[in-house]
Amino acid sequence: MMTKLVLLPLSKSESRKLLKRSGKYPNKIEPGRGGSPKLPSTKTELETAEQAYNQPRKTITLVLSEVNNIIELDSDSSDDESCDENKNSKVIYSKKYQDCSEAARVSLGRSSKTTGIEWTKISRVICEVSLHKPIEGGKVIDLLDSADNAKLKSDTSVDCDNNKKSSPKSGDNDKAAIASLGMRKQAGDHCVWLDGQLIKAPLGRAIQIQDGSILSLFGVTGLSYQIKLYQDDDKKKSPKKKSPKKRKLNTPTKNEETFIK
To answer: Alpha-carbon distance 158 to 180, whole Å?
Structure first.
């Protein structure tokens, strides 16, 4: 079984259209949280800011593979060993950590290498998106502890307003993957929105994300991504091909002995 999470970059108009279609576009936006930056003082600075803001972003794919395809994480491993990237996309493969958790993660923020975002209004690390398998007991990975993954959260996740939601138990669906978001900036220090709601959850607390969710790093629609989840069953049987009917052959006589050249 292989599960993928794709972060697909959207323009502001594309993001607004999807949110309105789903009925999630907010009717009222809190002052200072709508993603409207203070304009630069000079025309040159404004042009530079616009150019940086409109810089093409990368499509990011997280891949959660079978155990035998997962990269073991130890002190000698590097991030370069677990990803493929080019100018327009970046693929990050899952790693197996010392606590036996398996996850593929990406930090979102200003990074020409990971996201393609170069606008200086965006911090280098705002939040982290994770695709991981449930851990025994239903515990969810602590997104803040990405270095050694030694600590674990309780078996709950939260929504954008820090309301607790039960996470799937390991016995319910052992093959299920969990897609979650964790903030790396305190509430009030960022303008990250998820599905038309300003995120107010505390640092590192797992926020469940769904297929089709709209994640915006700067305001309701600014620097936004659509989240797409895919699952491929490698064990699916290919359709059976009809085999031609076997024809009964006559056994050759001594005078008709066959030979191989």
So the answer is: 10
Closest CA to 121 of 190, 44, 61: 190
Instruction: List Cα–Cα distances, 87 to 71, 90, 114, 258, in angstroms.
Output: 24, 8, 10, 62
- d(C-alpha 137, C-alpha 171), whole Å: 8
**Strand pairing partners for 231?**
3
Nearest to 234 by CA among 83, 71, 65: 65
Tokens found for residue 137: 């007991």
Residue 161 confidence (pLDDT)? 59
Low-confidence ranges of the chain (pLDDT < 70): 30-41, 66-82, 135-175, 233-261
- Positions of E strands within the chain: 2-10, 59-64, 71-72, 83-85, 89-93, 95-96, 102-108, 127-132, 156-158, 164-166, 178-183, 193-194, 197-198, 207-208, 214-218, 222-232
What are the beta bridge partners of residue 62?
5, 92
Q: Which residues contact 33 (CB under 8 A, 6 or more apart)?
A: 191, 198, 219
Angstrom distances, CA of residue 93 to CA of 71, 83, 178, 222: 8, 6, 15, 27
Q: Which amino acid is at 19?
A: L
State pTM to two decimals: 0.71
7-18 pLDDT, tens digit each: 999 999 999 999
Percentages helix, strand, coil for the chain (3-state, rounded to 5) are: 10, 30, 55
How far apart, in Å, are the Cα atoms of 36 and each of 5, 33, 121, 189, 251?
29, 8, 11, 14, 87
Instruction: Give domain limits for the chain.
Output: 2-238
Rg (CA), the chain: 25
